[in-house]
Amino acid sequence: MDMKADGKARKGKKRKGQRNMIWNETKECMSRDEKRVLQSARLVKTVDRVYHNVPFYRKRMQSIGIEPGDIRGIEDLSKLPFTTKADLRDNYPFGLFAVPQSEIVRIHASSGTTGKATVVGYTRRDLEIWSECVARALTMAGVTREDIIQVAYGYGLFTGGLGAHGGAEKLGATVVPMSTGNTKKLTTMMVDFGVTAIACTPSYLLHIAETLEENGEIDKIRLKAAVCGAEPWTENMRRQIEDRLHIHAHDIYGLSEVMGPGVACDCEFHQGLHVYDDHFLPEVIHPDTLEPLEDGETGELVFTTITKEGLPLLRYRTRDLTSITYETCQCGRTLPRISRFKGRSDDMLIIRGVNVFPSQIESALLEMGGTTPHYMMIVDRVNNLDTLEVQVEVEESVFSDEIRELERLTKKIAHVLQQAIGLAVKVKLVEPKSIERSMGKAVHVIDKRKLV
Ligand code: DLL
Questions:
Q1: CATH architecture observed for domain 3-31+123-344
Q2: CATH class for domain 349-451?
């Protein structure tokens, strides 16, 4: 394997060097064969690094009789072991990092089933590559340095806010770091600043549209593009957003473990999301047999990161269900495309872009006392915003208390749940034994959201 391929390819890119080509995807910089050489060199390097720097991977590779020398290129990808979210949790917080902590310059985290967060770490170079990927995605959505972009994903441990922010700054756009929470302020600034692009969850964008309509401001905005993701949405919803706001809306995908937003994005033809496979090698596998599937077949999306330094991952099982095609897109890009997501193979709910696991509710309820583990989460979409009601069975003794006592308890539970999941929750206390018991798997969620 030509270990110098990476360096050569990058030099090649530089030689082309026109300023306006910086954010073009690999199709314009190298042929498919050249890219394969680049991917292989990067994969070989990644495998070698994780084997020598991450005891977890060394053990896992040894357990299946694989050594770094067995991986000579991307044709050997399927010989590598899988990584799951459970592996990240078991090695909480920094156990899978491949560099000393002193080289980690940023931490992000997403909530997990056990209450422990899934922690991800980035080196300075990881952050640069992340910004580059997001900048590519924004470019795909038609955003340029002339635009004023509101980033209305949450800032903080969630990767949405800072991820989109980094990419927009890298592109040279004027960034307004709104975060979430104050829609009135957002719409006022959108009008006053002449904002031309927005990055937020699709459900939030619909809510923004509604607020603008209610306030008679819809004709005053200069918005032209939106880059939406972090939760599932349909083509219909995209069209509705486009029609109501008179903009182009694009789908951006990513997950914290692999990087954050910017792993893939759709172009103006909306025929699937282009994956930046010079950084993330995609595979689609059968979720039960774990065998790679044919192009076009729906299965679980798996990623191997090939440039990450802080937290490189081999064959990470995303749980997201999709299919892949390598056919050249109408836009001319040769990047592989994944179809819109068909759902997840696990039970995580995404409410207003925040990951929520039923077990988080359960453990918070059990910790506080006075309640039982019998609860029901009712997720809905009202005025285009996701809502969460949690019906909680209380103990008999508590239920016979005075109304004032019950109100106090309701408030307390709402506070505890909000602390646990980071989302406002409407709590309704219900009579003992009123929530249906299950003989098989307990059902804790009624998801009434219908994606239009
Ligand atoms: O949601 C990263 C992100 C932020 C992506 C902003 C796009 C925009 P996590 O919180 O780790 O990271 O959640 C990742 O969200 O495995 C999918 O199930 C879901 N998801 C993300 N983007 C999309 C999308 C961020 N465009 C999980 N369509 C992923 C459908 C999406 N689901």
A1: 3-Layer(aba) Sandwich (3.40)
A2: alpha beta
Give distance in angstroms: CA of 233 to centre of ligand 1. 11
CA of 201 to the centre of ligand 1 (A): 9
Q: How far is the CA of 157 from the centre of ligand 1 (A)?
A: 14
Split at pLDDT 50, 70, 90, the class of 356 is confident
- Summarised one tens digit per residue, pLDDT across range 130-157 is 999 999 999 999 999 999 999 999 999 9
User: In testing the pocket of ligand 1, which one of 350, 355, 357 has its CB within 8 Å of the most ligand atoms?
Assistant: 350
The pLDDT assigned to 302 comes to 98
Angle, CA 255 vertex, CA 158 and CA 311 arms, to 5°: 90
Ligand 1 centre and the CA of 10: distance in Å? 29
Whether the CB-CB separation of 155 and 179 falls below 8 Å is answered with yes
Task: Give residue 29's pLDDT.
Answer: 67
SS3 content of the chain, % helix, strand, coil (to 5): 35, 25, 40
Is any atom of ligand 1 closer than 6 Å to the C-beta of 255? yes
CB of 252 within 6 A of ligand 1: the answer is yes
Q: What are phi and psi of 399, to 5 degrees?
A: -65, -25
Give the pair of three-digit tokens for residue 216. Answer: 């008679």
* Per-residue pLDDT reduced to its tens digit, 181-207: 899 999 999 999 999 999 999 888 988
Token pair listed for 42:
């990067």
Give the Å distance between the CA of 230 and the centre of ligand 1: 3
Distance CA 255, CA 320 (A): 10
Would you put residue 151 in left (φ > 0), alpha (ψ -120 to 50) or beta?
beta
- Closest atom of ligand 1 to CA, residue 341: 30
- C-beta of residue 445 within 8 angstroms of C-beta of residue 360: no
- Look at residue 86 and give its three-state secondary structure: helix
Q: Tell me the domain boundaries of the chain.
A: 3-31+123-344, 349-451
Q: What average pLDDT does the segment 19-45 reach?
A: 74
- Tell me the best of 253, 263, 340 to mutate to test the pocket of ligand 1, counting ligand atoms within 8 Å of each CB and taking the most: 253
From the CA of 354, give the closest atom in ligand 1.
10
User: What is the C-alpha R_g of the chain?
Assistant: 23
Out of 257, 320, 323, 355, give the residue to mutate to test ligand 1, the one with the largest number of ligand atoms within 8 Å of its CB. 320
Which class for 214: exposed (0-12), middle (13-18), buried (19 or more C-beta within 10 A)? exposed
